[in-house]
Amino acid sequence: MSQQKVSKIGLITCTSNFFTFGLRSIEAHLKNLGHEVLIINCARKEDNTISLLNSFQLKALAERCFDCDVVGLSIISAHNLKRAEQVNNYMLENTKAKVVLGGVPVILDPKYFLKFAEFVCLGEGEIFFEKFLQCEDYSAVPGLGYKTGNREVVLNSLPPLVNVNSLPIPRFDFANTYFLTEETITSLAEDPKPLNACCSMGYRIFSIRGCSFSCTYCANNKLKDVYKGSGTIVRPTHPDKVIEELEYAKEIIPNLHQVFISDDDFAARPKDEFEYLISEYQKKINLPCTFYSKWQTFTETKIDIILKHKLKVVWLKIGLESASLRINKSFYKRPFNKKVFIERCRHIVSNNITLKIDMIFQNPYEGVPDWIENIYFFRELGQGIALDRSSPKLVQLGQFSLRFYPGTELYDRAMNDGIIDKDYVNDVLLTRNEYNVSKKSPYAITMFSIDIVLLSLYYLLIANKANLLCRIFRKPFVLKLLNWFCSNSLFRFCWSRFRLHSVFSKIKRRFLG
Ligand code: B12
Ligand code: SF4
Predict the structure, then answer these.
(1) What's the confidence (pLDDT) of residue 446?
(2) How far apart are the CA of 406 and the centre of ligand 1, in A?
(3) Of 5, 158, 186, 221, which shows the fewest CB atoms inside 10 Å?
């Protein structure tokens, strides 16, 4: 390291999941420069994403970070806003550190955070943090948002996007990585079990930054604008570095059984690089894996590469969101080709790979013609699968409720259309929904709606059953009537009260196992 002073930095994240890719990358970079870094993962048992920390947790944070020069707080989602403010204010009052906030929600709406924070990071954190530690003149720190003496907000221009291949691989510093629960604070050196528990679905790796698509509900849509002119957005980590990290993962996680590739699109790599990665992975790692991809990039050739090298894919996930052309084109801005999508699905399941298809439900812009298109889509998919004699059990539908995140194009549109109002963040994103039957996810289905009923029909159609029901349901007046019933508050009450959803889960299990 050059002559610069060594700083002590505390990095805090509001998640029990140790795979905080952004924060760990900053940690690795700063440690490489010789700084002292500690990381604290904070978790609440109940509604972790939205709830505040308790007094034990706040005190423990302040104690650990008391002699830090800088405390960095990472915000994963807009559901953490209240906690961000709580921790920021507590650390300002109870430590001597400068407190800086970063993460996707901060990048999307920095001015919101500057209402209470002194400093925010406007983009990627590695270069920003390095300069922030060195520089007394805030106007010279690239990527810094701050308030001047007279409370004026200043947003500096961004540093170039990082070269992901020049960053060190993120190794866990067991002695300085802490897990903060409601009662205890323990380092991974004292107890590595929480890290091992995070690997129940596999060691998570994020091997490609950025996404080449720009869906209107997704952060990537705005991130593309923010990073325009700062460098190439989609940046794969070189396969050799990916393998180096996974070899390290095998060393630190006892009996590692699986790898969970968390990239937005694992197949975004060019064909030759994709093949090189898979072949090296098979030679040196040889563990089952799971990943997300796009139907556009996960071409027949890439599926064939996977088959050729006998990569064991436990499941892979592709986003459909809606099979309606109108919704994809005019609302989500997602290119969609029904025929090719179905062909890809067939190719995947006919090779005995479990396919998860993500769907976004409870979209206020969806209506009868869109539901009819979805019904036809799943009927065709089911017929295709039956033709291949593949098991419909290999297809699973991920169910999410549409959420509007500040800073995204769809949020602005919904606001302009009067679908949501200025209280949306407080009333919806920061509040537990009484219809949400999922303990964990604020994304999960949040009310009883026609989509829940249609979901059971989709499963029947995937199993190439219910052709009669399909004929009935594709009649507009039937869907209108059904929608009326499902919007009725009595039914919604029954849904939350008597756990009606279990009836629909039973239908799914009955037909798909
Ligand atoms: C991995 C991931 C997760 C993991 C998080 C693991 C973890 N512990 O971090 C899991 C699966 C747990 C998760 C959960 C959820 N997620 Co998520 N997730 C992602 C995903 C795919 C990647 C994030 C990531 O690591 N990127 C790679 C790193 C390198 O980039 P980065 O995070 O932006 O970090 C850089 C900068 O932001 C900055 N930075 C980050 N932190 C800090 C801190 C400081 C101090 C500084 C200076 C800089 C800085 O520097 C970093 C390095 O350059 C993103 C989509 C995306 N592509 O970003 C969605 C995303 C972040 N998730 C999202 C959502 C909504 C959720 C859930 C609500 C979903 C759910 N199923 O319930 C939950 C909420 C969890 C919570 N506690 O709030 C949204 C957030 C939207 C919003 N505006 O709020 C995103 C953006 C996806 C989307 N729909 O657009 N998620
Ligand atoms: S393809 Fe997925 S990750 Fe990429 S912009 Fe769309 S929703 Fe976001």
Answers:
(1) 61
(2) 14
(3) 5
Beta bridge partners of 70: 9, 98
CATH class of the 201-311 domain in this structure: alpha beta
DSSP three-state, residue 123: coil
- The full set of domain ranges for the chain reads 8-180, 201-311, 339-358+376-513
- Centre of ligand 1 to C-alpha 348, Å, is 28
Measure 355 CA to ligand 1 centroid, in angstroms: 24
Task: Write the residue with the smallest CA distance to atom 32 of ligand 1.
Answer: 22
* Amino acid (one-letter) located at 469: L
Supply 199's token pair: 């690997």
Which of 69, 83, 13, 15 shows the shortest CA–CA distance to 37?
69
- Where does the pLDDT of residue 48 fall: very low under 50, low under 70, confident under 90, or very high at 90 and above? confident
**Interval 312-317 mean pLDDT:** 97
Q: Return phi, psi of residue 439, to 5°.
A: -75, -30
**Ligand 2, CB within 6 Å, residue ranges:** 211, 213-215, 218, 220, 264, 294, 319
Residue 436: predicted pLDDT = 55
What contacts 417, CB < 8 A, 6 or more positions away? none
Enter the pTM of the model.
Answer: 0.94
* CA pair distance 390, 395, nearest whole angstrom: 10
Q: Which of 209, 211, 331 to mutate to test the pocket of ligand 2 (most atoms within 8 A of CB)?
A: 211
The answer on pLDDT for 243 being more than 90 is yes
Rg (CA), the chain: 24
**Predicted confidence band of residue 365 (pLDDT cuts 50, 70, 90):** very high
Q: How far is the CA of 219 from the centre of ligand 1 (A)?
A: 9
Using a 10 angstrom Cβ sphere, with 0-12 exposed, 13-18 middle and 19 or more buried, the burial of residue 502 is: exposed
Question: Between vectors from CA 477 to CA 474 and to CA 478, what angle results, nearest 5°?
Answer: 60
Q: Is the pLDDT of residue 1 over 50?
A: no
Show Cβ contacts of residue 494 under 8 Å, excluding neighbours closer than 6 positions. Answer: 448, 500
What pLDDT, on a 0 to 100 scale, did the predictor assign at position 124?
A: 98
Please name the residue whose Cα sits nearest to atom 1 of ligand 2. 213
In CATH, which of 1.10.600, 3.40.50, 2.30.230, 3.40.30 is domain 8-180?
Answer: 3.40.50
- Among protein residues, the one with the nearest Cα to ligand 1's atom 34 is 22
Q: How high is the pLDDT of residue 24?
A: 97
Average pLDDT over residues 93-102: 97
Average pLDDT, the chain: 92
- CA 194/CA 198 separation, integer angstroms: 6
Q: Which amino acid is at 366?
A: E
Confidence label for 235 from pLDDT (cuts 50, 70 and 90): very high
Query: Within 21-150, where are the H helices?
Result: 21-32, 55-64, 81-94, 104-108, 110-113, 125-134
